[in-house]
Amino acid sequence: MENTCLFCRIVAGEIPATVVHRTETTLAFRDIDPKAPTHVLVIPVAHHADVLSLAADPSAAADVLAAAAAVAEQEGLTGGFRLIFNTGPHGGQEVFHVHAHVVGGAPLGPMLAAR
Ligand code: AMP
Ligand code: ZN
Questions:
Q1: Distance, CA 52 to ligand 1 centroid (Å)?
Q2: Which residue numbers are catalytic?
Q3: Ligand 1 site, residue 32, Cβ cutoff 6 A
């Protein structure tokens, strides 16, 4: 737990979130500013700053992936969805506790906005 980390504070229950899925090692909650009809963030309970750090912990990485799949099923995303890890400045990462965005519920359009 990092006291200054927003998502560690959500794990600790210090900041409210709409939790939709929970395991011993992961937590999934609705994004506060949804970009699609379904927009859920899946995080490891243990603090990892970004996906590079998560990748160095294969067990936690597998748990996050499995939780994302469970969320997609639970949310009824039968038409498909996107799983996004924004990473670093070029990726536009804003919260430095790794999170997988599960977005779907409608056609999502092109993968990236045109430059
Ligand atoms: P990223 O740019 O990949 O770091 O995404 C951070 C995401 O966290 C954004 O989609 C925000 O809307 C979302 N977010 C920020 N604060 C909260 C919060 N307190 N509860 C839920 N989602 C949040
Ligand atoms: Zn954290």
A1: 19
A2: 99
A3: yes
The Cα-based distances of 77 to 11, 34, 80 in angstroms read: 25, 15, 6
Of 88, 100, 79, nearest in space to 29 by CA: 100
- Domains of the chain (ranges; CATH) run 6-98 (3.30.428.10)
- Whole-number Å distance between alpha carbons of 89 and 60: 23
Give me the residues near ligand 2 (ion), CB cutoff below 5 Å: 2, 5, 7-8, 47, 97
pTM, rounded to two decimals:
0.97
At residue 1, the pLDDT reads 67
At 40 the three-state DSSP class reads: strand
